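Changelog excerpt

This revision adds worked examples to the README so contributors can see how folded entries look when concatenated. The first example is reproduced verbatim below.
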Amino acid sequence: MTGALFDLRGRLAVVTGARRGIGLAIAEALAAAGADIFAVSAQLESQGSEVARRVQAHGRACEVRAVDLADRQAVKALAAELATSPVDILVNNAGTIARAPAAEHSDADWDHVLAVNLTSPFTLAREVGRQMLTRGHGKIIFTASLLSFQGGITVPGYTAAKSGVAGLTRALANEWAGRGVNVNAIVPGYIATDNTQALRDDPERNTAILGRIPAGRWGKPEDLAGVSVFLASAASDYVHGALIPVDGGWLGR
């Protein structure tokens, strides 16, 4: 019975930002649970990608698309393509960050961060979600952030976007929970990815961050595997509008 709750065989999962880091780990986890994967990332190789290799190693199919998620027309084209497929799971994971003091944070950085981290996830959720509502079932998973709850330092665009993701998760859940579509978010803590490389390279910031994490270490992308399968599966059918931290205890400190 327990295994059946987490069985994703016969499901199609779209994962954005799947080329590396958290997205790659989530795509592999969903494939290991039985899902076929439609992987999206800005610079995803059409042949020989790591995500395709890992997914296929689990005996699952993997389609890949290179899409600039800051390009609204490219996102709309992707959404139109996805509307023709029976997408069961949408993982809006792709993200970017720009670090600069607020007084020096440019309009270009602000627009780019908001486009990738908030506007494109909404567009994809709206278009794919419409098809899920018609079928009466589906799972949408956003990647939020600790900065959905906190202000952060020198990342005003990122904080604004991830705060928006938290609100969007709840707003869509309020509308769609009664129609068979689950909308939830994963809240990664400090995970060792490219987005956090600058923090890990700064001895002072690295020490301060590690000192506040009860688990005593940076997270790994693979630490997101279990919660992603849970939120994509029947095990979470009565979970709506939740933001689930995977942070080594940071928010409980």
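The second example, added in the same revision:
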Amino acid sequence: MQFGTKAIHAGVSPDPSTGAVMTPIYQTSTYAQEAPGHHKGYEYARTQNPTRHALEANLAALENGAHGICFSSGMAAMDAIVRLLNPGDEIIATNDLYGGSYRLLTKVYERYGIKAHFVDMTDTDNIAQCINARTKLLWVETPTNPMLNIIDIESVCKLARTHGIRTCVDNTFASPYLQTPLDFGADIVMHSATKYLGGHSDVILGAVVVKDLELAQQLYFLQNAVGAVPGPQDCFLVLRGIKTLHLRVERACKNAKKIAKALAAHPKVKHVYYPGLKAHPGYMIASRQMRFYGAMVSFILQKDTVEDALKVLSSTQLFTLAESLGGVESLIGHPATMTHASIPREERLKVGLSDSLIRLSIGVEDVEDLLEDLEQALRLVV
């Protein structure tokens, strides 16, 4: 089954009681039982919900996995994965990653004896040098946020397997339409489904997909025991969004490539970070492991000053100044004060995340209008 067909049909079928084509929103907290312990597969909605199950089956199919587990947010999904570890265990994570991920690893789990090391994963030697007997998990983002570095998933997973270490790939920036990390050897794939999977900036939800049954059972246990589950309407909204995932992401990627090329040629732009540009150091790896190059673009201005960056950030008319990404609408953001403010400045600067970096989430509008919007904002820069 091809991707577009799976997006629409995998895990879902007409409602048997009414024939409804769309998966119903099972807005219930509990289920009637014929006798104690005798039921129709559903007991309590924290543990099981038919709308959630349909979404989980759909996501598993899209990622070429076997088991999908949904959570109330992307951070709740990440939290469940880290909870698989024990005090004294260590994580090696991408050094350029979402600020919320950095905050969870450093401000929350270090207190419980789980230490994270942040390294440049574009070179697997950096990972190998950091591995020790306590290393239990490699945490990968690719493309990275917000510098859009590309990590070779297959190479990282091969290294992890030789040491008996699990690899988790945060696939939020790519979506399963662009890459399927399990096919490259990853043990776990995680998503903030709030982004491309939902696609309409109207829902908060997280997801994990795995192939291994024992690993899935551990995550299902945590899902139920901790209770950070999404509501049925949120699951319905993500299911609805996924039906157009391939159409939205392909259009956004095509827009992004045109915008990245235009910015790279603009006299007021110093540098553009986009893996679809041949000058990007990860271009060949991205060409091998991704269907398209993504719809995120970051750039710095020629003078590279915060003042000029703020002029652009505050002057767009179609690009909305807001956090998040992956919706049908285009967004513009300032990682240093928004999505990555929880990372200390000195750590941000080490990976090239300057105070003047601008991040774009390209939507599905007509690209000519988006280009004109950026142009009129750039004209304000002297």
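Reviewer comment on example two: Residues 246-378 form a domain with the Aspartate Aminotransferase, domain 1 fold (CATH 3.90.1150.10). The chain is about 35% helix and 15% strand.
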